[in-house]
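for the record, two folds in this file. i put them one after another cuz i was lazy. first one right below, seq on top, structure tokens after. the second one comes after a little note so u can tell where it starts
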Amino acid sequence: MDTTLSEFSEKKPGSRAGRPNCPRELRDRLAAAACEPGVSVARLARENGINANMLYTWRRRYLTERHAQPAGMLPVVLLSDPPTQAPAAPSAIYKH
């Protein structure tokens, strides 16, 4: 984790005081780090000068966006001939 919030703390025109506007890449990097096993979200937030609740929100949004991405296309194989033998029904296999 090389980048901290203090590097991005310059005041932007129109931004509210006391509420930093963090760049998207910093939010995503911190959210990804917060998803790692064994990482304390509170400690990570404190080390980067942000509120832990904000980091939890970024992490939740990051995970939602990551799972919402389309899976992509999968190859499909069409069989021209139907199966020659139908599988046996489960009740025919298990006789009591």
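(here's the note) second protein begins now
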Amino acid sequence: MHPDDSGNRWGDLEITDPKAMRALAHPVRLAVLERLQRYGPATATQLSPHVGATPSVTSWHLRHLSGFGLVRDAEGSADRRERRWEAVARGFRFEVPEDEDGRSAARVLAGEMFARAAELPLRWLTETEPRLEPEWIRRAWAANTRIVVTAEELAGLRAAWEELLEPYVNRDAPEQPSGSRGVRMLLHTLPEAADDDPGAPE
């Protein structure tokens, strides 16, 4: 696992170890990591009500994540009785390994991530949208678009997308303009199987 500057404009932690993928493929651990990435350092007690686990169980999950280099002791955290944890990076990414064990681990992690993301749009519509100002409601949008591309073109689209968003992903609080707020962007690229469209060119 490593942040890689080439092809990783957002500075995400890259997960390559199938064991780490399986370790992260747990709803509480994903919730813990997401909370730390979004809100910064916290103790197990502070995280507990937001991740659906008791402080002791949350602490166990934090230690498990730490063992795979996903979280660490927060800078300046001296009280070992109430450890403050922080995410190692703002985000993470993983490539699907070529071996069967790696593919299986990546599939499990992707499944947990899809399940977690699936509820976000409806929850936004029922809980957040009613509290938004009209200007922000008008700016929200969703798309479900089919394109026809080669594998190389799809890789190029990902690189272009990441380049476009990079200034906003890596902008720290002091650089954020007045009136800005967090916006969740969900993007799934889901290639079709070759036999899904018998009329497609070879």
